[in-house]
Amino acid sequence: MENITFRELFGYENKNIVITGAFSGMGKAAARLLNELGANVYAVCRRNGRHSTLDFPVKKILYADLGVKEDLDSLLKQMPNNIHALFFCHGIALNSQGTYYFEGSNAEEVMKVNLLSTKYLISNIIEKMEPSSSISIIASSGGWNWRENRENCQELLDTETYEDGVKWCMEHHDVIASAYVFSKECLNYYVVANTFNPMFVEKKIRINCLNPGNTDTGLKSDFGKYTSSTHDEAQGIEMIEDIFLKPWDGYWASPEQMGYPLVCMGSRIFNYMSGQTIFIDYGISNTWLFNPYWF
Q1: Would you tell me which of 25, 137, 159, 180 could form a disulfide with 165, CB atoms 3.0–4.6 Å apart?
Q2: What is the pLDDT of residues 16-33, one digit of tens each?
Q3: Helix, strand, or coil here: 188?
């Protein structure tokens, strides 16, 4: 380990890295750092192109609507054959029409984007993953209650095909009513339950999950609108801050404060860590252990 370089420490140089949600927020922060560490970054952007452009070079831009199965299949074909790290940073709180995820069947779209796409892509890309590679997933501190909801999480994740997963969601509107929260609970459960899944263990593929606290990304506006009973963004954000930030005189995290730890999680630095659900929220989730009514 003498005279090891910074890039050698992370182990991404000249390695093929695929990252979703790379055009905004935490995903963009992570993609930029991966580029600076010398990785061959394959950046996935939403097909509708409403996200900002990148101000740093990448190996290739891949376009896909992760809520559409045909796009997922197309994306799989475009990915490189040898993948050394896979980062899932995509997610929505509202559906593509901008309405709220608790309004009837709109919840299904959130489940498709936030959960079913990730499960489907992992299952079908595993052959392209290199031995000792890594899979790192951004979930949310909103998924903190996954243990109490693990039976529903397991039932959904045990569905065999993508279509079966969609069918399960359509038949369980009561369970997916808060689709953003439930999708994040399922992501946490997926990581823990699949740590020793043969498809990962046989190739020593590490899988971990990062759960961000309140972060200043594009979803901040959506969360504000959802939290307010009148869909007033400013009012909703004030309510969020009163509950989650004021108790510790806190502040909204920057995308880098989540994206950078995510890059570390998938790197050589943490090459003995797998099956972990890491909460990066300045410890606010610890208070829920003692005051569960908060959540």
Answers
A1: 159
A2: 999 999 999 999 999 999
A3: helix
Q: Evaluate whether 183 touches 115 at the Cβ level (below 8 Å).
A: yes
Q: Which one, of 229, 218, 219, 223, lies nearest residue 244 by Cα? A: 223
Mean residue pLDDT across the chain: 91
Give the integer Cα–Cα distance in Å for 19 and 27: 7
Q: Is the distance from CB of 227 to CB of 239 less than 8 angstroms?
A: yes
DSSP letters for 152-172? HHHHHHT-SSHHHHHHHHHH-
Q: How does DSSP classify residue 80?
A: -
H or E segment and range at residue 132: strand 129-138
Taking the complete model, does pTM exceed 0.85, yes or no?
Answer: yes
Average pLDDT over residues 56-72: 95
Amino acid at 96: S
Residue 164, pLDDT > 90, answer: yes
Tokens 């909801």 — which residue? Answer: 149
Left (φ > 0), alpha (ψ -120 to 50) or beta: where does 287 sit? alpha
Q: With bands split at pLDDT 50, 70 and 90, how would you rate the model's confidence at 96?
A: very low
Q: DSSP assignment of 237-283, as one string?
A: HHHHIIIIIGGGT--PBPTHHHHHHHHHHTSGGGTT--S-EEEESTT
- DSSP label at 98? S
pLDDT digits (tens, 9 = 90+) for 122-133: 999 999 999 999
Which residue has tokens 């659900």? 277
Q: Is 273 exposed, middle or buried (0-12, 13-18, 19+ CB in 10 A)?
A: middle
